[in-house]
Design a protein that fits this description.
The protein is of the alpha/beta class. It folds into 4 domains: about 90 residues, no CATH class; about 100 residues, Beta-Lactamase, CATH 3.30.450.20; about 160 residues, Alpha-Beta Plaits, CATH 3.30.70.270; about 270 residues, EAL domain (TIM Barrel, Alpha-Beta Barrel). The protein is built from 25 helices and 25 strands. A hairpin with a 5-residue loop joins strand 7 and strand 8. About 25% of the residues are buried.
């Protein structure tokens, strides 16, 4: 037995293996004990078996002894200590239950510590579980609220049969279908898409497991098609994988996009195609013309004197006129023709399929142009006004007159201006020589710009004289251009070409600045009698510049000119556009001492009521009424009426364009005070004007005009300038 107890003990997993020391013949016995653990912390029994690698009975006996020894060893070394420990623990638990305040001995205290630690761990774990449960409950409520109140429609489909399993309340609002009817509806009933497309979409999402965002059409309960942006994904529920769709109505967004797209290619006032869309259509028409050899044409329309309507009746009436004109143009033309508005009062008509013969195409284009002109025959009744308007039309054909949009529009514009030059209310077909004139006009604008930069412009002065004695009251500032090759050019030859461009404002500012510089220098020369007024013509564009008043103040301060000696000449139409704004500007300038004169009076639309509310000082009778006053009773009556009206409201009057003694005598007899024209003095250069002021100072005391001797002074002075 003692010999057999010596061996090797090894534990492997749940087994205890004991191997005896080998005998001399090599026989060894192995005993294996298997420990089975029983629930409720009870120690399991040990079963020991022996494996003998021998057939000798003695060996089997030895194996039985080893098995008994191992079982006995296990009972004493393992089982009994464990049972004692468990019994002690059970007794401790009973005492704690019976006597909660029992003070244990040190060994018990150690055990209590372990128990308390275990209790604290359990309590902590329970608190964490409770917190986690509360968080889960809050998240669930939050998700339920989002689901119920989401602005987006949320739909859950069965991917197998395509039926709707559940949806939120927004879905019923989105589709206009009661919630109780929605559940069970098929994909194809809810979407305006093919079944094949929907099946492919579902399979793709479910197979890949990745979400997709697509644009798809839904079918509402009333038959409307609702465009939607849909996010699709695969979700796992207790019943399996389902298809989740979150749909957002994008009708407003798409409508807005369509509106923006429409505005990008259409005129906002008339809803006609704009320049961008016209350019695209002309490009396409040119391509078709080259391919089919069919000739097309462009008609360029510009209303005659449309600016007068805006200035006199306001832009609102002008806008209504343009809208009515657009409607009439659409009705008058073929459906395949394009009518576009380029801007302002400019319209373009695109015609295609006019044939393959150039002469016949031009004839058809003329016929359509006359048809267009016919829409202007009837009056336009707008805002209580009866308006009659006409249009000048330029005609080009393509590809004969150009193979690009820009070239065709430029040539059509050129032909239109020739129609205006021929008397307006007509149509002209483009000719090559017209293009040469347009090029000349462009060259002139460039030369004007260079002339301003190089100092080629010069001021001239048309004296204003007192009729009773010939005293030089002042002068009207005129502009002359010393062209390097063409010599002296009058404003009437170049201003019409630049009156609507930025160069005009630069010239206006230059004239105002140089005039004030001259006036400042004359005031400082003791040998010269400073003019009572220096009249400067103010253009429409210049007068209505927001910074005009500030610019005048700046120039006056810079040059030292006496503002009380300045007189601004403006036209009637400038004041009619915005009377309130005009009065404010004029009042601000009058506070500086500047006076105002109405130029070309009698040719506009001013009434006595208009004149009385305007802060003006002088009326200038237009030369068209003065030219025949000695022979035409009507002109004579108009001049007398103007003089009488001006006298009653306290205005000075200057007669323009006086060239004969008969005209001067009539004005003297009609009690007109002032005049200007070639009879008195032609336009003078700066040097000649200074001489005139020096001579004027020698004859008349400054600021003191003597009363004339009866008939003597006037005759003497007029004799100096009449011959």
């Amino acid at each position: 037995m003692a010999q057999l107890g010596v061996g090797f003990v090894r534990r492997t997993g749940g087994e205890v293996q004991v191997t005896s020391r080998p005998d001399r013949d090599g026989t060894a016995v192995t005993a294996v004990g298997i420990i089975a653990t029983v629930p409720q912390l009870r120690v399991g029994s040990v079963a020991v078996t022996c494996k003998v690698q021998s057939t000798d009975r003695r060996d089997r006996d030895i194996a039985a002894v080893i098995a008994s020894s191992v079982a006995l060893l296990w009972d004493f070394s393992v089982q009994r200590p464990v049972r004692r420990g468990l019994g002690h623990l059970e007794g401790r638990m009973r005492r704690l239950s019976a006597h909660p305040r029992h003070v244990a001995d040190p060994a018990e205290q150690a055990s209590d510590t372990d128990t308390l630690r275990l209790e604290r761990m359990l309590a902590t774990r329970q608190r964490r579980i409770a917190d986690y449960t509360r968080r889960l409950r809050r998240e669930l409520e939050r998700f339920k609220a989002i689901y119920r109140h989401s602005h987006d429609a949320v739909l859950i489909f069965d991917p197998q049969d395509g039926r709707l399993l559940d949806c939120n309340p927004r879905t019923a609002e989105f589709l206009g279908i009661p919630h109780e009817r929605l559940n069970g509806m098929h994909l194809t009933e809810l979407h305006d898409e093919s079944e094949a497309f929907l099946r492919s979409l579902v399979d793709d999402v479910m197979d890949r497991g990745e979400g997709r965002s697509i644009r798809i059409n839904y079918r509402a309960g009333d038959g409307r098609i609702i465009p939607a942006e849909v996010s699709t994904s695969r979700i796992q529920l207790d019943t399996g994988n389902m298809l989740l769709c979150i749909a957002r109505d994008i009708s407003e967004r798409e409508n807005a996009a369509e509106r923006i797209q429409h505005l990008a290619y259409h005129d906002t006032l008339t809803d006609l195609p704009n320049r961008t869309l016209l350019t695209d259509r002309v490009d396409r028409a040119l391509a078709r013309a080259r391919r089919t050899h069919q000739i097309g044409a462009l008609l360029f329309l510009d209303l005659d004197k449309f600016k007068r309507i805006n200035d006199s009746l306001g832009h609102s009436v002008g806008d209504e006129l343009l809208k009515e004109l657009a409607r009439r143009l659409r009705r008058a033309l073929r459906e395949e023709d394009t009518v576009a508005r380029l801007g302002g009062d400019e319209f373009v008509v695109l015609l295609e399929g006019l044939g393959q013969r150039q002469d016949r195409a031009v004839e058809k284009a003329r016929e359509i142009a006359e048809k267009v002109r016919a829409i202007f025959v009837d009056e336009y009744r707008l805002d209580g006004h009866e308006l009659y308007v006409t249009a000048s039309i330029g005609i080009v054909t393509f590809p004969h007159d150009g193979d690009t949009v820009d070239t065709l529009l430029r040539h059509a514009d050129t032909a239109m201006y020739h129609a205006k030059g021929a008397g307006r209310d007509g149509a002209r077909v483009f000719e090559r020589r017209m293009d040469e004139a347009a090029i000349s006009r462009l060259r002139l604008e460039n030369e004007l710009r260079n002339g301003l930069r190089e100092g080629e412009f010069e001021l001239y002065f048309q004296p204003v004289l007192v009729i009773r004695d010939g005293h030089v009251l002042g002068a009207e500032v005129l502009l002359r251009w010393h062209h390097p090759t063409n010599g002296m050019i009058a404003p009437t030859e170049f201003l019409p070409y630049i009156e609507n461009c930025a160069l005009m404002l630069k010239l206006d500012d230059w004239v105002l600045l140089e005039s004030c510089r001259l006036l400042g220098s004359i005031q400082g020369d003791p040998e010269l009698q400073a003019p009572d007024c220096l009249a400067i013509n103010i253009s429409h564009q210049q007068f209505h510049q927001p910074e005009f008043v500030d610019r005048v103040k700046e120039i006056v301060a810079q040059t030292g000119a006496d503002a009380k000696r300045l007189q601004f000449e403006i036209t009637e139409t400038m004041l009619i556009k915005d009377t309130h704004d005009s009065i404010e500007r004029m009042t601000a300038l009058k506070q500086m001492g500047i006076r105002f004169a109405i130029d070309d009076f009698g040719t506009g639309y001013s009434s006595l009521a208009d004149l009385r509310q305007l802060p003006i000082d002088t009326l200038k009778i237009d030369r068209s009424f003065v030219r025949d006053i000695a022979s035409d009773p009507n002109d004579a009556a108009i001049v007398r009426a103007i003089l009488s009206m001006a006298k009653h409201i306290g205005l000075k009057v200057i007669a323009e364009g006086v060239e004969t003694r008969e005209q001067l005598q009539f004005l003297r007899n009609a009690d007109c005070s002032y005049y200007q024209g070639y009879l008195g003095r032609p336009p003078l250069s700066v040097e000649r004007f200074r001489e005139e002021l020096r001579f004027n100072g020698e004859l008349y005391a400054p600021d003191d005009i003597p009363p004339p001797a009866p008939g003597a002074t006037t005759a003497r002075y007029c004799g100096l300038g009449m011959d």
